[in-house]
């Protein structure tokens, strides 16, 4: 009887977890965005569930990075219609820091430097803002371990954030931030640019790990190469501010061969 009760309680806990995960999906509904006087996104709809990997592809100027910035709350990207929901929480009008606390993370295509602030202190401030109470020494040990996973040497933790980092090192530092913060949803804007073959494989593996742990992932990319290591659940094509096609991993392979003109 006791064993049966334990099984029942276990099933109940699993059911509650699954219900919570289903209710925490990211929903982008009829999303419209303007930059200055130009409409960039024209009623975009997208849904990402926890643990899913979505790839967003499209020609230059189609609005891919604009979507990333608008979701994160960049003031130059004005939302003129639609909503963003994380579960039941409306993120649409929130400030960038409020969206981050809600669980939304953006890895920049061109990470900026922050002079006078070490990578370690930057990450320490970020995790403390989430309520992390681990001591500095314990946090340092954790960061050293995670740095190794993204291919950054320990001394980078003591260097000013993104100062004198190569392009690939900046991208590694962006993924390190995601591993530390464990967001509910992470957007990686052209994370594959500037990475050599070995680094690409390493970074893709860590993003896959995030997804396996329950983080919903949106990868914005021009190329299929990262998707050979980071297999997406869905691939979407954005052209002139509209999603014109969605499919599985095979769609990315098709685009690599024939481009966007034949869609």
Structure in words:
The chain has 263 residues and is of the alpha/beta class. It has a domain at 26-116 and 182-258: P-loop containing nucleotide triphosphate hydrolases (Rossmann fold, 3-Layer(aba) Sandwich). It has helices at residues 2-22, 64-72, 96-102, 119-129, 136-150, 167-181, 197-212, 249-258; strands at residues 26-35, 38-48, 53-57, 78-86, 89-90, 104-107, 114-118, 160-161, 185-189, 216-220, 234-239, 242-247. Strands 6-9-10-3-11-12 form a six-stranded mixed beta sheet, with helices on both faces. It has a four-stranded antiparallel beta sheet with strand order 2-1-4-5, covered by helices on one side. β9, α7 and β10 form a beta-alpha-beta unit.
The total beta strand count reads: 12
CATH architecture assignment name of the domain at 26-116 and 182-258:
3-Layer(aba) Sandwich
Oligomer status: single chain
Estimate percent helicity: 25-40%
Spatial gap, N to C terminus: 60 Å
- Fraction in beta strands: 25-35%
Quote the CATH topology of the domain at 26-116 and 182-258.
Rossmann fold
- Name the poorly predicted regions: 14-21
Shape: globular
Q: Tell me the Rg in angstroms.
A: 19 Å
Q: Main beta sheet, described?
A: 6 strands, mixed
Structural class category: alpha/beta
At the fourth level of CATH, the homologous superfamily of the domain at 26-116 and 182-258 is P-loop containing nucleotide triphosphate hydrolases
Total helix count?
Answer: 8
**Sequence of secondary-structure elements:** HEEEHEEHEEHHEHEHEEEH
Average predicted confidence as pLDDT: 90
CATH first level of the domain at 26-116 and 182-258: Alpha Beta
Strand order of the largest sheet: 6-9-10-3-11-12
């Amino acid at each position: 009887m006791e064993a049966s009760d334990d099984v029942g309680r276990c099933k109940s806990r699993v059911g509650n977890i699954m219900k919570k995960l289903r209710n925490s999906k990211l929903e982008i509904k009829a999303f419209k965005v303007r930059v200055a006087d130009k409409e960039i996104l024209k009623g975009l709809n997208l849904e990402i569930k926890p643990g899913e990997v979505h790839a967003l592809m499209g020609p230059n100027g189609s609005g891919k990075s604009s979507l990333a910035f608008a979701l994160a709350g960049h003031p130059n990207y004005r939302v003129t219609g639609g909503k963003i929901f994380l579960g039941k929480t409306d993120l649409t009008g929130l400030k960038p820091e409020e969206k981050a606390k809600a669980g939304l993370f953006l890895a920049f295509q061109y990470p900026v430097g922050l002079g006078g602030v070490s990578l370690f202190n930057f990450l320490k401030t970020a995790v403390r803002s989430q309520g992390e109470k681990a001591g500095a020494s314990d946090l340092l040990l954790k960061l050293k371990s995670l740095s190794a996973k993204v291919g950054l040497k320990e001394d980078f933790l003591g260097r000013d954030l993104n100062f004198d980092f190569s392009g690939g090192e900046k991208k590694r530092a962006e993924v390190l931030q995601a591993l530390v913060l464990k967001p509910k949803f992470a957007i990686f804007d052209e994370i594959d640019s500037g990475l050599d073959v070995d680094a690409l494989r390493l970074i893709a593996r860590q993003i896959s790990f995030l997804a396996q742990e329950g983080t919903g992932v949106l990868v914005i990319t021009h190329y299929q190469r990262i998707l050979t290591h980071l297999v997406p659940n869905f691939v979407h094509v954005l052209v002139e501010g509209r999603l014109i096609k969605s499919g599985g991993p095979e769609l990315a392979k098709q685009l690599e061969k024939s481009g966007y003109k034949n869609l």
